[in-house]
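A student in our group prepared the protein record below, which I am reviewing. Thanks in advance; the entry in question is below.
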Amino acid sequence: MKLTVYHTCCIAMLVALNIILTRVFSIRISFEGIEGIRIGFGTLPVILAGILLGGKQGFITGVMGDMIGFQLNPSGVYLPTFTLIAGMNGMLAPVIIRWFCNGMISLKKLVIVIGINNIMTSLVLTPFLLQLHFGIPILVTMPGRVVAQAFLIPSMAMMVNILIKRLQQSGVSVHYVQYSVINPRQCADKQGE
């Protein structure tokens, strides 16, 4: 998909929201001066960019949000591997949606999609990189991460659910998602064909 002025404006707004939610309105837990756990809704705009605009635009949103956010509010040293994980948050969601139900989505499926996305990025890749770069053992950060994701995954799914429904009702084009909350059987019928 071509990057249009509309996409650029949406990406800019979602990057700004990502920076605010990640760098300002999040709880940070440090281990020996290194940020080990960050609890907040910072990945929500990135996932939303991926679902609404596509994987490439979601990746761009995550990367730009991490790079600009680090420049505005640095925490430790800059490592590009964490920037790639931020981009993956926006790229994985539309891929999982296409794979999981041919683009049809409901609240239950959003919980699964965001769950797979957050498990891969927040519970697997980020702790691995923290151990690789800083020597923070995975078992030290994992309990806090699991508890945070148990709260964040359903909360994010509900927020994305509401936002997508409202955007579609207002006539905004959602390219990668056909919403099935209005008629939950629609997804089952589509899969049966």
Summary: The chain has a mean pLDDT of 86.
